[in-house]
Amino acid sequence: MLDRDGHIPLYRQIADIVGERIVNGELTPGEPVPSETELKRDFGVAQMTARRVHRELRDRELIHTVPGEGSFVGSPDTPRPPYLAPLYRQIADEVAATIRSGEIGANRPIPSERTLMLEHGVAKATIRQAIALLRTEGWVFTVPYRGTFASPPEHWPAPAPQPAAPPSP
Predict the structure, then answer these.
(1) 3-class DSSP assignment, residue 123
(2) How large is the angle between the packed helices 87-100 and 124-137, nearest 10 degrees?
(3) Rounded-to-integer distance, Cα 62 and Cα 49, Å
């Protein structure tokens, strides 16, 4: 319960509540924290108060914010569960998997924007974000007026390191 007349500012009281949810595991690393809109609705506070809650939680190093995506529990390098990844990331991962598996060979075209839009039911901008990400990571390259093609394996990103297995007794 919030003490609206007390000496502790509302944003700190709410940050304490959300922080407690993080500490006790109710909100786990990589999970989104309540948005400013949700905080406004749930606690009946103004936009500026909700914004200060997020700032306070960032200052306490309990959350991080990704512009355009939201605020998440943990530090910026905390992985998010796959189901929480942005849609363009999910699409990029799917295309990368088809390249990695050999289903799309090196220097062969990937599906067109239109094909990917229809397959995933998303806007062209989302597909373009996915392709830009694939290009940045080295999975594909684009030839103007010809299309986008799978890169040869030597251009692919290095696989993520796997955690070491615990020593056997």
Answers:
(1) coil
(2) 50
(3) 18
- Residues 140/131, Cβ–Cβ less than 8 Å: yes
* Alpha helices by DSSP H, the chain: 10-23, 36-43, 47-59, 87-100, 113-120, 124-137
Average pLDDT over residues 140-159: 93
> 32 near 84, Cβ under 8 Å?
yes
Q: What is the pLDDT of residues 96-106, one digit of tens each?
A: 999 999 999 99
Q: Is the per-residue pLDDT at 83 higher than 80?
A: no
What local confidence, expressed as pLDDT, does residue 77 receive? Answer: 85
User: Bridge-partner residues for 128, per DSSP?
Assistant: none
Residues in Cβ contact with 31 at an 8 Å cutoff, skipping those fewer than 6 apart: 72, 73, 80, 81, 84
How far is 168 from 63, CA to CA, in rounded Å? 36
pLDDT confidence of residue 165:
54
Q: Give yes or no for a contact between 107 and 154, defined as CB atoms under 8 angstroms apart.
A: no
| Helix (H) or strand (E) segment spanning residue 142 | strand 140-143
Indicate the pTM of the whole model: 0.56
